[in-house]
Specification:
It is a single chain. By secondary structure, this protein is of the alpha+beta class. Helix content is 44%, strand content 17%. The chain is built from 26 helices and 37 strands. It is flat. It starts with a helix and ends with a helix.
């Protein structure tokens, strides 16, 4: 055999083995790729598919699947369109740049790396570009999907039937379309900019571009690619510059908002010229594709940059200094008028009813006071912060109950609401709080999964007090106890469904209708009383007990693997989650901004507990409107320049069902979303009558409106410019001189609006009404005199009407801070305050209220006394101070203080007779005065004080879990009450 044949026999099998090994490697690689692909799909399914599935179930539960599908379709459409557009632009341009690389660069690479490595590098570079393009496209699509709400508004534009005075476009263009157009142009700038940068880098690496001086020698195909992309970039910048012209309508001109003289005569023309140069430069670059010179496009680009420098920086400042500043009022008068008009329109202040020359005289008499008994019987003497402490000490009963709400920053704050109810035919102003469950306050040994998720699932009932009635310094209760029971003064007020599964204290998901009974409320009886249990009977929640798939989905979504291991679930078991009412509304109506103060309502038609939440439609694009910050969370604000309280939302505290009612059908933003989600927002007349009676003007909106109107109530641009009639909000007065300044909060009152001669007909109202009001001060006398007061009406056909009462120009009406100064220096009151502040106690003034009565003002402030050292102190409403413009008095009750100032008041039975607390209430059955403490013998008063002390001791023992001590204290209390009954009969 020849040597070469032998060699052939030896080499052939080795070659075949190499081929076989190569195929095995390929199969292995394919298997690895398939495994990685399957793992990637699994991750995508878990990361995106599971939340999508559980969200769909949740939206189905709240009957808002159209919101879910509309949002999903909008996000998916934007994601697909923008991701595809980015991919086509970026990938094909970078691939083209690779294909246009000169042969010399490939040869040089082969010389340095070798043919095989160079081929591999070229092959993998193509794969790398594909992967980079896909990654960037996914990122671009995700970025675009976040603008789904702007896209929906863009495609459902509504007319405001008003045009801006500069570009003469309907206001709807700025509210509905401008944001999406700005996003679109910004996206194009980013996409084209990244593509052009990547193409230039590839051409430099491939040595297609060697220097800027040799650009004219580039191959025709390379020039075409670079210059077309550059022209597209310049055209995009031109579009952005064009849209920036509309941004002038929100320009801050120091003392007014909107374009002023310089903006109209310099900035706007400069932007127009910049657009012309950019378009011309883009066209010149396109024409330079076939030419050899770049001088024209470069020159036009340079002119654009020069215009930016001169038109945006130099010229406006020069004209402002030389022309406007010396003649500012005359030059800016027309633009100030626009700012006043459009700001009023944006904040719905164009129809404020102004009543001039409200007398504010010292003409009150005992007869006037008796005629305004409804107002005086509803003066709020209890402050939120002090009443919150009392509720926490006496009404929580157990440490896992809270009268709190969870704020956005994770902290807890008192959640005391204020409302009015018709009780025994009279409107009564009340304060109330929901008793919510906080399982995190259970003892550490009780922090088990079953307790937190299956047993302690809900809060229970509420506490309601009149705003001004006390029992030995503590509040009287209209509703309290377990189950909640009404006192005699609140006969007819019933709570048929006291369980609170949904509220403002978010405690995570719970599982209901299981084999484990749910804790309802604790035993409050003596001896061996048993706790009470119940099971959820509502229609809310998502059934998971009969579906293993749903269990797995929620276990993954919630990170709660105990759900798969628990053996005490039933086929009918449901999961209740997203139990924070604000989160529920935010998801059902993502286009709304919720008020920061949801309030609980007892529906007197059916006894259910329902949360009411005021919701706003807002924008920051209203032309010529001055921006203002609105609170969206503690310490967090959103800047806006348009707001409407367009929607009233309700959430059932038991079932969690969300309902939205259109309160302002004239709002174009609400109209647009009503078209996007047809049927989601119901007509306002479908709001049940039992809830409609508790609609109130929202405090957050009133804060914004009073702040804006304090400046924008004037019509004359000269007065506006000189600030001759500008107002401000008085600071909250305090007896502590070291306390930080804080604007006085508006407050709800039940009152007769003053019926003055010459008032508009729509102010005529014979009955008492619920209003939200606030005094106003001149801006140059902050915390001193007040010049009038503003109120928002809350009842019936007058709802939403804003009224401003102004004092005569020559009147000097004392402000809250001046009244507090007088109280602290009063020769009769001051020694008493000093005495109350001794012996380890503090005596602090509560909110000072300015109450209009007929043609005069009353200043009323409560005085609270509490221990200064002990933790968990129990404040007592010890005194009430009443002041007029020149006198002040302090007494145990409001009626007594009024009687000191106005002899004869109360002598004819003006005070309501004392009542007994309803049987079964947790409050001892002692006399409970409404506005005045009646005179009682010393022996009776001693027994009342003893009973009160025993009651507090009993409640403390109950809270600490000392049930034996609680039983003994209750027996002692019963003996004292029997002695009291024997003494008084």
């Amino acid at each position: 055999m020849r040597p070469d044949d032998r060699d052939f026999d030896i080499i052939l099998p080795q070659t075949m083995r190499r081929v076989s090994d190569s195929k095995a490697v390929q199969r292995f690689n394919r298997a690895v790729i398939a495994f990685i692909g399957a793992l990637f799909l699994l991750v995508v399914l878990v990361h995106n598919g599971v939340p999508l599935f559980t969200d769909w179930l949740w939206f189905h539960e709240v009957h808002a699947t159209q919101v879910f599908w509309t949002e999903v379709v909008a996000k998916t459409t934007l994601f697909a369109l923008f991701a595809l557009a980015f991919f086509l632009l970026f990938y094909f341009n970078t691939r083209m740049a690779m294909r246009l690389s000169p042969e010399s660069s490939r040869n040089l690479l082969e010389e340095r790396l070798g043919p095989e490595l160079a081929d591999s590098l070229y092959r993998w570079s193509g794969i790398g570009l594909l992967l980079i393009s896909i990654f960037l496209s996914l990122w671009a699509g995700r970025l675009a999907s976040n603008s789904w709400a702007d896209w929906l508004m863009f495609t459902h534009v509504q007319s405001f039937h008003s045009v801006d005075p500069v570009f003469h476009r309907d206001i709807g263009f700025y509210i509905f379309q401008l944001d999406f157009l700005e996003f679109l142009t910004t996206f194009l700038l980013l996409a084209v900019g990244l593509t052009l940068a990547a193409v230039i880098v590839l051409h430099v690496i491939n040595q297609t571009i060697q220097s800027a001086a040799k650009l004219h020698t580039l191959p025709q195909a390379v020039r075409r690619q670079l210059f077309v992309l550059t022209a597209l970039l310049l055209a995009t910048i031109a579009s952005i510059t064009w849209l920036s012209r509309y941004g002038l309508l929100q320009n801050d001109n120091g003392f007014f908002t909107g374009p002023g003289w310089v903006d109209i005569h310099a900035a706007l023309p400069a932007l127009d010229v910049q657009v012309i140069f950019l378009v011309a430069a883009a066209i010149a670059f396109l024409m330079a594709v076939k030419g050899t010179s770049l001088r024209i496009p470069i020159a036009l680009t340079g002119l654009w940059l020069l215009t930016v420098f001169v038109g945006n920086a130099m010229l406006p400042g020069l004209l402002q200094s030389l022309i406007v500043n010396p003649n500012q009022l005359s030059k800016e008068t027309a633009y100030i008028k626009r700012n006043i008009k459009y700001t009023r329109d944006a904040y719905n202040l164009q129809n404020v009813t102004e009543v001039d020359n409200y007398p504010a005289t010292e003409s009150l008499t005992a007869t006037n006071l008796k005629a305004n008994e409804v107002t005086l019987n509803n003066v709020r003497l209890w402050d939120h912060r002090y009443l919150g402490k009392v509720y926490e000490q006496l009404q929580t009963i157990k440490p896992y109950y809270k009268f709190k709400q969870l704020d956005a920053d994770g902290s807890l704050s008192d959640d005391i609401d204020i409302d009015r109810y018709m009780l025994k035919g009279q409107m009564r102003e009340v304060m109330l709080a929901a008793r919510e469950m906080d399982p995190t306050s259970l003892p550490a040994s009780a922090q088990t999964w079953q307790n937190r998720r299956l047993s302690y699932t809900h809060g229970y009932g509420l506490v309601m007090s009149p705003v001004n009635r006390t029992v030995l310094g503590e509040p009287e209760y209209f509703l309290d106890g377990f189950p909640p029971k009404a006192s005699g003064a609140a006969t007819g007020l019933t709570v048929n469904q006291p369980q609170i599964y949904y509220g403002t204290l978010n405690n995570g998901a719970v599982y209901v209708d299981t084999q484990q009974a749910e804790f309802d409320y604790p035993s409050t009886g003596a001896g061996s009383g048993q706790d009470h249990y119940s099971n959820f009977q509502g229609v809310g929640g998502i059934t998971i007990g009969n579906s293993f798939l749903r269990k797995v989905a929620f276990a993954v979504n919630r990170g709660d693997w105990n759900l798969l291991l628990a053996d005490n679930l039933k086929p009918s078991t449901r999961i209740l989650y997203r139990r924070d009412i604000r989160e529920r509304i935010r998801l059902v109506a993502p286009f709304l901004q919720e008020d920061t103060d949801p309030y609980l309502v007892v529906d007197q038609d059916n006894g259910s507990l329902v949360w009411m939440v005021d919701c706003y439609t807002v924008s920051s694009n209203y032309p010529y409107s001055t921006p203002h910050n609105i609170a969206v969370a503690p310490g967090a604000y959103e800047q806006l320049n348009y707001i409407r309280n367009s929607v009233k939302a309700t959430v059932n505290a038991y079932t969690g069902q969300v309902n939205l009612y259109l309160a302002d059908p004239t709002d174009p933003i609400a109209q647009a979303w009503n078209h996007i989600f047809p049927g989601l927002i119901k007509p306002f007349d479908q709001l049940p009558a039992g809830l409609r009676a508790h609609v109130r003007y929202p405090e957050d909106l009133f804060r914004v409106q009073r702040a804006i109107y304090a400046t924008y109530h004037v019509d004359d641009p000269r007065i506006f410019y000189l600030k001759e009639d500008a107002w401000t909000i008085p600071d909250e007065p305090t007896s502590d001189p070291n306390a930080a300044d804080q604007s006085m909060s508006p407050y709800y009152v039940v009152m007769h609006l003053p019926d003055l001669a010459g008032d508009p007909a729509n102010l005529q109202n014979k009955g008492p009404e619920f209003v939200l009001m606030s005094p106003l001060s001149p801006i140059n006398k902050q915390d001193q005199n007040i010049m009038g007061w503003m109120c928002a009406r809350c009842d019936g056909s007058h709802y939403g009407q804003l009224v401003l009462y102004r004092f005569p120009q020559q009147a000097s009406v004392l402000g809250p801070a001046q009244i507090v100064q007088r109280i602290n220096s009063d020769k009769v009151i001051s020694p008493q305050l000093s005495l109350l502040r001794t012996g380890g106690s503090t005596a602090s003034l509560g909110n000072l209220l300015v109450i209009p009565i007929d043609r005069s003002l009353l200043y009323i402030a409560p005085l609270y006394v509490e221990a200064s050292t002990a933790s968990g102190t129990l404040p007592k409403l010890a005194k009430v101070i009443v002041a007029t413009g020149n006198r002040e008095a302090m007494a145990d009750t409001l009626d007594e203080a009024l009687a000191q100032l106005y002899p004869g008041y109360g002598s004819n039975g003006s005070s309501v007779a004392p009542e007994q607390t309803a049987t079964g209430s947790s409050q001892p059955a002692t006399p409970t005065p409404t506005g005045t403490l009646v005179s009682v013998p010393p022996a009776v008063r001693a027994l009342i004080e003893k009973a009160q002390t025993q009651y507090v001791q009993a409640q403390q023992k109950l809270k600490s879990g000392d049930f034996a001590g609680y039983g003994n204290a209750t027996k002692a209390l019963q003996q004292t009450l029997q002695q009291l009954q024997d003494t008084t009969h």
